[in-house]
């Protein structure tokens, strides 16, 4: 890895601090980074978050108090970032020591500069080997997942299944795009990319997906002519499967109830063709994200509403998609910050909210119509148990399709069920 551009390291530490101290989602925190440094900061910060606990394990033996809990958050972030650069980016130790020691002063932690200097100079040549004697601790440290998550997944998937999940989470996900069938075809986009020296291939699961394997560093994909013409959108195949499961038909009325940023909204519109698509989200800012994607991809007729969909007086719909707010534990390979921002208590709270949203969404479907419930979680409280409870208390509904996937090299983890209301 090349030496980061000027100020990339400082901007990365500042981003990590915003995530930790203000609980900001990664994408929101990244918005404050100047565009010229954004790609480099994103790459470095995601790496630190992905391998956080393993990087800590190289530092802890060098501390007087062998725990990161005793460190100021700024100092802890510096140690994690420096260790990540040494062990995963092969950055020279002397450069890391000088720059990160100086950064302590810039972050107004001058008193910690001597500690940072002393510790970084003594970092071992290799990462410590984590022993498997305590298997839970081994998974926690070696794969940098919180202990509560490890314990939960061992109960759910067994030891081998849990380790497989953790390993999948730590693989950097490739850029996955959906071709906008409203404007072009996958074959045409692939041919154009290949002519420009961009290596891409068809996806595994869906007819409009493509995986970009090597894109070079000269141009962001948002500068590609295909992006500018609204022919592609970033969307993992697991998310694409949700709209395919919904199976919208021409002329139907469709509601996307938690729509931002609009990937599924535009996919539903593309599959259906002529008809009515109405998208809702809580805030004007989130609705603006949907609007921007609809405009760029050519779906200007999509109706957009800001606010809680439960507050609207709506006519019955043929198809409703409830892509519910969730823990996001199926997307850790793309969003490793979720590992450090979520808790078991939040999963229970989210499950209650999902139950309330699902019960109300069901009242908006016409007799004979369909309701699709989806999450990007792999937690049973948010998925299987949620649907089982719903069907047990709503006899007029039955399941007619399901998509479940655990994160692997082909797609993120996701869950979706299509249910039909009796006539």
Notes on the protein architecture:
There is one protein chain. This protein is α/β, with parallel strands linked by helices. The chain has 4 domains: 114 residues, N-utilizing Substance Protein B Homolog, Chain A, CATH 1.10.940; 26 residues; 60 residues, Alpha-Beta Plaits (2-Layer Sandwich); 185 residues, Vaccinia Virus protein VP39 (Rossmann fold, 3-Layer(aba) Sandwich), CATH 3.40.50. The protein is 46% helix and 16% strand. The chain has 17 helices and 11 strands. It has a 7-stranded mixed beta sheet, with helices on both faces. Helix 14 links the parallel strand 6 and strand 7. Helix 3 crosses helix 5 and helix 6 packs antiparallel against helix 7.
Summarize the entry for a quick read:
46% of the residues lie in helices and 16% in strands. It is α/β, with parallel strands linked by helices and 423 residues long.
List the keywords.
423 residues, alpha/beta, N-utilizing Substance Protein B Homolog, Chain A, Alpha-Beta Plaits, 4 domains, 4-stranded antiparallel β-sheet, globular
């Amino acid at each position: 890895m090349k030496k980061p551009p000027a100020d990339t390291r400082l901007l990365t530490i500042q981003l990590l601090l915003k995530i930790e101290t203000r609980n900001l989602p990664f994408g929101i925190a990244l918005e404050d980074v100047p565009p010229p440094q954004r790609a480099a900061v994103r790459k470095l910060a995601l790496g630190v978050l992905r391998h956080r606990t393993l990087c800590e394990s190289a530092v802890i033996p060098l501390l007087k108090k062998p725990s990161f809990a005793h460190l100021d958050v700024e100092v802890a972030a510096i140690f994690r970032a420096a260790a990540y650069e040494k062990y995963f980016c092969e950055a020279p130790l002397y450069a890391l020591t000088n720059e990160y020691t100086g950064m302590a002063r810039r972050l107004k932690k001058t008193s910690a500069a001597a500690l940072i200097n002393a510790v970084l100079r003594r970092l071992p040549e290799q990462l410590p080997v984590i022993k498997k004697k305590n298997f839970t601790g081994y998974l926690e440290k070696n794969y940098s997942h919180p202990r509560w998550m490890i314990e939960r997944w061992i109960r759910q998937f067994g030891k081998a299944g849990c380790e497989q999940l953790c390993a999948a989470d730590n693989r950097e996900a490739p850029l996955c795009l959906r071709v906008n069938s409203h404007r072009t075809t996958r074959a045409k986009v692939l041919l154009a990319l290949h002519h420009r020296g961009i290596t891409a291939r068809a996806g595994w699961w869906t007819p409009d997906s493509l995986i970009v394997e090597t894109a070079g560093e000269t141009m962001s994909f948002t500068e590609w002519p295909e992006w500018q013409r609204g022919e592609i959108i970033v969307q993992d195949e697991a998310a694409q499967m949700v709209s395919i499961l919904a199976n919208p038909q021409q002329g139907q009325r469709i509601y996307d109830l938690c729509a931002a940023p609009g990937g599924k909204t535009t996919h539903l519109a593309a599959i259906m063709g002529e008809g009515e698509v109405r998208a809702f989200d809580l805030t004007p800012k989130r609705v603006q994200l949907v609007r921007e994607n609809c405009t760029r991809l050519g779906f200007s007729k999509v109706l957009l509403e800001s606010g809680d969909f439960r507050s609207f007086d709506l006519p019955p719909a043929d198809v409703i998609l409830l892509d519910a707010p969730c823990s996001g534990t199926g997307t850790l390979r793309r969003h490793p910050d979720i590992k450090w921002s979520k808790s078991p208590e939040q999963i229970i709270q989210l499950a209650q909210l999902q139950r309330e949203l699902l019960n109300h969404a069901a009242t908006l479907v016409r007799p004979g119509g369909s309701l699709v419930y989806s999450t990007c979680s792999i937690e049973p409280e948010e998925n299987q148990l949620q649907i089982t409870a719903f069907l047990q208390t709503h006899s007029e509904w039955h399941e007619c399709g399901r998509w479940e996937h655990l994160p692997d090299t082909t797609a993120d983890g996701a869950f979706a069920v299509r249910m039909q209301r009796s006539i």
